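Running low. Got one?
___
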Amino acid sequence: MKNKSKYLLILLTIIIVSFPSICFSKPKTIQGEYCMVYTGDMNNKDELKKFTDSLRMKSIENGIVKSKTDWRRPEDCDITHIMDVIDNYMKIKVISNTKVGRRMCEKVKITLDQDIINQYFKELDRDLEPKRRIQKINEELEGKIRTRRLQEIDNSTKNCEWCWDLSVSLHKISLQDKKDITVGIILDVKINNLDERSRESVENREENLFYDQIEWNNIIELGEKYKVVERKHLKKILDEQKLSSSGITDSETFKLGKILNLDIVVLRMIYDNSQVTKVLKVDTGEVLLSKSYYENILPFNVSSSSIKENYKFQEECGKRCEEVFKNKYGGVGQVTINTENGFMVINQRNHYNYKLNKCFHLVKTDYCNKKNVVEYSIKELSDVNENRTFGESLYFFDTKHFSHCYVGNKDCKSEREWNLLIKPYMEE
């Protein structure tokens, strides 16, 4: 019997040392009170219940704030976790309910064990850590992606004087008008002896420069202030109104802008040796910019007299992609670069798409830790000549999910969907 008592005493000592909160934790009782005025329909039971539930939460919140309880909750815990604590770790008793007209008050008594609740928050903090790590990586990558995209746009538009003038005009408007600005572009290509395919290539290049500059302004102004109406919609309205982009007047442009609810119309006229850019403000009829330029707007693979053979374009595309890859990563083929937390393995593919008349560059970067395990992978599909990104994916191997995945204006949720979406760019 003595030995049994001795063992029980030892066991009790171990429990006290290991779990002091179980033995010494003392429930705490606090009171909270709150009053609110109900402005809804007194006969609407659903509305009234929402109001009384809100009043109850305010009363509980008031009691917790007044008690100056030392909550050790993680900063990123949400309302779901708070409700879990209230439902499972607090005993709530309504002391009184008073009502004078539409003014209602409620007083509650709250019984809780602070140590147990803090233990819940400690475990929650541990559970949220992987999510924080992924969020931090996402934020860092998004910052890098934004910076890299700005650099890409700067490179693609560095010789585009009209792009900069457009950017300045749009920024001036955004300072005057805080609402979102809807923008469209009309292209009028008047180059002599230009075959249809080459004409289309010139139009695509000009349109992409326009899109890039709008994106640049959105990134710089930290939002999506500028909304673009696609050129195909403008073409459709031109056809319906029996207008032509060739020789379109300012008054016709304003009319088109009003039909499409545009704030700004950019009119870009391209001649043999010069170009004219106009920026028109639809609601006031104001011409914000009207300027002539003398730039070489024909890309290397556009001829005004004939179409070159596909293999020749592919050869030029391959050389261009190798040049870009080498300048960026210091090598060709597969390149390995050491980082602070491990290393990167970068691979590339290229393809000249005859149908789209574009040189596409697909770059895959695997980020590996010091244990040679791939943590995440980034794939980017771009037009190497226009320095324009057409698609990108970011995949985390530990959680087996895409942080983001898109090609053009379509999202993807799996590797198979990504491969299907890039197929028209990399195989045709």
Remarks:
- The CA atoms of residues 402 and 414 lie 8 Å apart.
